[in-house]
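Operator note (shift B, R.M.): manual run for Proline--tRNA ligase requested after the automated queue skipped it. Running by hand, logging everything below so the morning shift can see what happened. Input copied straight from the record, untouched. If output looks odd, do not overwrite the archive copy; leave it for review.
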Amino acid sequence: MKQSLLFMPTLREIPADAEVKSHQLLLKAGYIRPVAAGMFSYLPLAQRVLNKIEAIIREEMAAVNANEMSVPEVLPAELWERSGRYATYGPDLYKFQNRQNRNFILGPTHEETFTELMGSEIKSYKKLPLLVYQIQTKFRDENRPRFGLLRTREFIMKDAYSFSADQEGLDKAFRSMEEAYVKIFDRVGLDYRIIVGDAGAMGGSDSKEFSAPAAAGEDTIVYSDATDYAANLEMAKDFYERQPDDSPAQELTLIDTPTVKTITELSELLDRPADQLVKTIMLKTDDDRLVAVVTTGDFEVNEVKVQNFLGANAVELADEALVEEKIGAGFGSLGPVGLPEDVTLLVDERAADLANFSAGANQNGKHYTNVNWQRDVALADEAIGDFRLAREGDLAVEGKGKLHFTKGIEIAHIFKLGTRYSAKLGAQVLDQNGRNVDMIMGSYGIGVSRLLSAIVEQRGDEEGLDWPASVAPFDVHIVPVNLKDEDQAKLTATLEENLKAQGLDVLVDDRKERAGVKFADADLIGIPVRITVGKKAVEDIVEVKVRASHTNFEMRVSEIEDSIQVLLNGQED
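Run finished. Output pasted below as returned.
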């Protein structure tokens, strides 16, 4: 393609609202343009990258016998009302009415749609297992879209769904999708980790995230430096073996602590380490239950673990005024002793092992010392669990190595949904015994458009973009210094013809620009191999630059045909 005919509006200045590298470079290089907050146009260069990513996805989906199809982006609200998510999904859901005042949504994901379809079309286990997928625009009304394509209100997603008659079928589909995703991300040139993930609003019994380490990532990856353990921070576990303190119980004592509001202040007042004190955090579930969560003073409460333990759709910090009305004390003076019966008590296992500890007395400005479980607070075994947020440097969950933190971009998520949707929407088949059983489902998503940003975050540099050959908008960028020179013009045409004959995508910079402008734009848009045709064209010698390795060297044109695949892989011949 001739560059003079390519719509590629580059920028010389980075817009002030572009905070992260990928947003800055994709704007500057003319790949994307904003239309509204969190909504972007994909210009020709970006579209070519997306097309190549989607082609890789389609190839790997075909390899696991997944069927590509598509369903509407606009969905009737009744479908989501039947699953229960219309009320629980939250403000991110775009809702509207048509002219007949019927409620609709813009699809953020399509579990309900596919479940309804398969439930109406498949009636026998003999038609299962089945994998279906689509690549489609999705919509979520993010409160604060930011970081370019990383957090948007409109985005491209590959969503796939598996339907099985038994657990074995689900497990097989889950494994095959995980393996397919590994191949996809290997092929697009990303560094990534497979981590334990939170199912969140999707639900289900098991989930894994694919996360690309990057400074701009909004997720925290927790990983062991001695094993392959990795998890999202919300799901991460440290290593702890329960060892209940069997010290003799001392007398429960009420003390005045009028100035104490924090664990640090209590620790200083009592001259006791924070891990020998407890703090009580009051949470509220989506169905208005109050939950008192007790941890040792040196840990923070992990709300996601609490939510998953309770099977709640959401939990949040309770309003202090509500807590004071219900408990009789505000934040800073709360504790497990004397809680009302309708307040659910959950105790982290580390706190459950303490004896003679200090805690808020549920009276403003007062604490208890020498609190003991069972004597002072009834504690059932089923109320004890891991409710703490993992800390960097602690022993990893297997007891080997230390936990380390890094930022990551979530690029994919796979879920074992089980029968959460099929049971509610009546998607059943007859099993081998002639009984109606709910289909067992999995859900598998890839954030296609955010892959552009993930790649740029990992590979972009001061000069611009650096695309892997597998997804680059063009394979080779030919830059003639002066097309008015007959030798340069002839050699440029020959190179273009020969490279295209090898099936390569070639961009020729035929613009009437200075050489320096051409070189800067070439580095900016990030095509893997640049071939400069200059003064030595008469000798059939050109200069080659490999974008990934930042190396420049001269080559004879006759050598390029045999070397181009090596060069595309970012290496010198």
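Quick read of the result: The chain is about 25% helix and 25% strand. The CA atoms of residues 32 and 42 lie 5 Å apart.
Leaving this for review. - R.M.
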